[in-house]
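re the bet — no i am not wrong, look at it urself. input seq straight from the record:
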Amino acid sequence: MLRALLICGLLAGVCGGLVATGFAELVGEPPVEEAIAFEESQSSAGAPAEPELVARGLQRGVGLVTAASVYGLALGGLFALAFAAVYGRIGRASPARTALWLAAVVFVVVFLVPFVKYPANPPAVGDPDTLAARTNLYFAMMAISLLAAVAAARVHAVLARRRSPSSATGLALASYVVVVVATGLALPSAGEPPAGFPAATLWEFREASVGTQLVLWTALGLVFAGTAPRVMAGQPIRPWRSSARGEAAAATRD
């Protein structure tokens, strides 16, 4: 069953990655182009220009689709493992509802909460010399958010034996919020955009970043929710193939 769930996850991840790529191309590319234009204007004004290692056209085309597919595959596989770990252990929801709830929780815990502290930046924003430090801070926030979510789930499991479901859920959620807020206040900031950088461009880029991830996890959750119940029921993921084979076998016998 786990192998079949992994197939569902990989399929859902690729679908989510490709849909998110289309969204990023439509919504995310305009602010990226504006940021690149600003960076080039700064370079022409005296700042040293960075060499272009990969052509921009290749980045937007084959590079973006390839990265999205690989990224989606990885996320889909991890999502399937997470689903197998939580299904039936947290609540009594159906496989489809569990998949949708899990996708929503992962979007908030793994992306949105770290994003609030360390939002994505377009080109020309952020000192290249501090890139490694900023990346480490982002992943530290992500890890703490994930660990806090796991701890909150355990708190909920313990409290559910002694309190009402709503009370247990509220206290577990409050414990998660306290941990991530305290962490966000304790960790240093990631710096400010350069002087003169258009605020509208920065805002649009960050909106597009959130939208891309939202589209990714929505599509991944919907595709997985549509296929996982068949696996849990012991049915094939692609029933039309089995049906076609069955009809062919019956015709041969006749």
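see?? Residues 239-254 have pLDDT under 50 and may be disordered. told u. also The two ends are 34 Å apart (CA to CA). so pay up
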